[in-house]
Amino acid sequence: MNAIELETRYSAHNYAPLPVVLARGQGAHLWDTAGRRYIDMMSAYSAASHGHGHPRILAALAAQAERLAVPSRAYYNDRLGPFLEELCKLTSLDAALPMNTGAEAVETAIKAARRWGYRVKGIARDRAEIIVANGNFHGRTTTVVSASTEPDYRDGFGPFTPGFRAVAFGDLGAVERAITPRTAAVLIEPIQGEAGIIVPPAGWLLGLRRICDAHGVLLILDEVQSGLGRTGAWFAFQHEGIRPDGVILGKALGGGVLPVSAFVAHREVMDVFTPGSHGSTFCGSAPRSIPTSRARARRASACWRKACCRRRRTRRSFAWRRRSSSRARISTGRSIASRRSCASSTARAGARVRRDRL
């Protein structure tokens, strides 16, 4: 059997890949088993925003893996602290909790918001609610799909976790009407990815910040897809000059070599966690602290700022692409066969704001 037949035979059928068998990658390019070169317009759903096989990341990863790879969180290590410090400085928040996948970081944020609601805000035990947006995508774990409004993600996976209220994305009035004394947090994507690159109205994030402040509710932003330079700023929330109470990061945080995510928040929110209340076997492993050093991230950000789409261009490009029904169209609607067009801009950017299928 060939590679496609083997994968089809032995893999769960939870993906429907394009009929291309990739063998290697370098920078913005991929090669299949026949030696054909492609521009990677998927960028591993933004996990490879640095490009494939970034030499500085690979060198640092190899050096650290030889030195110390997977220490237990029962001990301190000399890499985790500096990594968390950089995350906090970058987000202007106080503390970070590293995890592996984006969905795990979302679960972490949900647990933090609920416990904060009980221990700080005084919500009755097991009655906390979190407001989410229609069309959201925060992952596929059981709790996270409980907050989803997408039927395909929920079909056959109930019973679902209670405590979520969904409102229209971009509608400040709907958010405020949904807030009750039991509301612990508003959890949203600054730009919806899975729903089709939905950019909210100007001033929406600023309005959310004001509403949450007025009602004593946490504002938690899922920037797994929109964060780390993909909108021309470090984070999408910076375009409106706000600071959330918590931000969820992932994908590009791992430099395209490791699954790394994190929940970063104010100290009051993070301090609800106590020893044993949350954790992960690999969340403190030393190589996870390698891919996003501040100096490397700054250099990458200079390229991102030049290449990321402005809002108007994003709306126009993806409105066009959503009208295309061809499975052979990827990212901005170019055929995978037309891989040589716009090569120079793609290679410089390494990442573009696109509809990301997780």
Description:
With 358 residues, this protein is α/β, with parallel strands linked by helices. Helix content is 33%, strand content 14%. It has a single domain, classed as Aspartate Aminotransferase, domain 2 (3-Layer(aba) Sandwich), CATH 3.40.640.10. Strands 4-10-9-8-7-5-6 form a seven-stranded mixed β-sheet, with helices on both faces. A three-stranded antiparallel β-sheet has the order 1-2-3, covered by helices on one side. It is globular and about 60 Å long. The relative contact order is 0.18.
CATH class: Alpha Beta
% residues in beta strands: 5-15%
Contiguous low-pLDDT stretches (5 residues minimum) are: 292-297, 300-358
Which architecture name does CATH use?
A: 3-Layer(aba) Sandwich
Strand pairing plus helix content: what structural class? alpha/beta
Report strand order across the widest sheet. 4-10-9-8-7-5-6
Number of strands: 12
Q: Return the average pLDDT rounded to an integer.
A: 84
User: Overall 3D geometry?
Assistant: globular
Helix run count: 12
Quote the CATH topology: Aspartate Aminotransferase, domain 2
The total domain count is 1
Question: Largest sheet, if any?
Answer: 7 strands, mixed
Helix amount, in percent? 25-40%
Q: What Rg do the Cα atoms give? A: 20 Å
Task: Provide the succession of SSEs.
Answer: HEEEHHEHEHHEHEHEEEHHHEEH
